[in-house]
Amino acid sequence: GDDATAGALQRRRLIGYGVAAAASVATALITTPLLAWLDLANIAMLFLLVVVLVAVRFGRGPSVLATCVSVACFDFFFVPPRFTLAVTDFQYLITFIVMLAVGLITGHLTADLRFQARVAAQRERRARALYEFARELSGALQTEQIYDTTRRVIQQAFRARATLLLPDDAGRLHQPPPEHASLAADIAGNGHSGAHLAALDTGIAQWAYDRAEPAGLGTDTLPASRIFYLPLVAPMRTRGVLAIEPQQRRWMLIPEQRQQLDTFAALAAIALERVHYIEVAQGALVSMETERLRNSLLAALSHDLRTPLTSLVGLSEALTSSRPALSEAQQDTARALHDEALRMSTMVANLLDMARIQSGEVHFNLQWQALEEVVGSALRAAGSALKGHQVSTKLAPALPLLRYDAVLIERVLVNLLENAAKYTPPGAHIEIAAVLHGAWLNVTVHDDGPGLPAGREEALFEKFTRGERESAKPGVGLGLAICRAIVEAHGGRISAGRGALGGAAFTFTLPLGTPPAMPDEEVHD
């Protein structure tokens, strides 16, 4: 703790003063028998040598004491009259003053050099620790590796207990789990780590994380805390909080230590962000590969199923008109077989179209044409599905020509009409409306049915998603996904919501553009 460290420093300081005084007295005792062979100037140099050695070993304070004791011993043992502190020759007073001044200056300069050398050594150790830390983080591919490396390096480099608090998906910080391997081993081998974890205040850490500002020990925010909370601010966002409990509270007041710690925190934050985007990239890569394989499988299956389904549709049609004529029950069975074959053929066509659109194999035949034509063809194509429903159109007068692929836009309208007929009761009203809105044409298919599931308006356009999760209604959930892909390929957008009739409404937009100029009519005389 702080008290034990302070006691050790006090004992070391007292030892230094004792050694300084003893060394000066010992020098006097050793050189006294040699007075007949040594000049007083040489003896004074020996005392200055002792001062220098004490300053190098113990610092400024002991060197000052060694200087004073050396001057006193030189006066007592060597200056006439010997073994007294009296001085008969005035020149010796000058010698004492010069010797004292030289000793003090020499001790001061030596102590400064010792301090500078110690600072340089500490800087070298910090630079090496920083290099090692950066090298270890560069090879980290998992968050757990960054967690272990950061804790270990901070504890070694700064003689402080450290913990990394990381956020969850909701941005809430949590203490590390007790089952964490390195943390459990640390707690088992050092009881102080358990006390450190118990002293963590996640509220302070959350404050530092939310505001990207340090808090706790040595800051203006809750300075009474014994733990310093440093947010790990990366280029994109804050990635966590580093909680540090130094062995000495005054450690946080040293600027170089704070700068070094800030550098360590910045490296840890960048490493966490790098690992995060590695995970995002890996997830995206897996998703892309899964999508590619799924599209390939859909395309292969759809292509292989179309031929037998076409044959099944033709055979069912031939069965209904076979001779001799079938009985009424057999006719019903043949018609049901034909309808189901058509339904399966439509599903397979949707699967194949979706796979082709996703793979970019669909080539658009964009032509300037009227919307009324494709609306009429879509109503005819969806006629069987719309039986028993009231269908109307509400198209704005004098609609301009639009540049689109008539076959694909017809597919969009057919899918929306069939979807409306599927999820509304018999007799429901379905309407197709089109209005101009700025530089866009808004086309809406809406009904007066039960409407859309709350909160799932956007999810309905995902592949293999249906309006009712468990439903006996036919379909595989690709119709709306195909609509979105086709509309977005034309530069528009499609959305779902509540319509004017009170039920579901699907609206897609098409850009107006600038139609080509019509040729002038020929004038005949």
TrEMBL record:
Superkingdom per UniProt: Bacteria
Localization annotation: Membrane
Keywords, sorted A to Z: ATP-binding, Kinase, Membrane, Nucleotide-binding, Phosphoprotein, Transferase, Transmembrane, Transmembrane helix, Two-component regulatory system
Main location: membrane
Domain Histidine kinase, first and last residues per copy: 300-514
PANTHER family, A to Z: SENSOR PROTEIN KDPD
The UniProt record lists the keyword Nucleotide-binding: yes
Entry protein name: histidine kinase
EC primary class: transferase
Catalytic activity: ATP + protein L-histidine = ADP + protein N-phospho-L-histidine
InterPro entries linked to this entry: GAF, GAF-like_dom_sf, HATPase_C_sf, HATPase_dom, His_kinase_dom, HisK_dim/P_dom, HisK_dim/P_sf, Histidine_kinase_KdpD
Bilayer topology annotation: Multi-pass membrane protein
EC number in record: 2.7.13.3
Transmembrane segments: 14-31, 37-56, 92-115
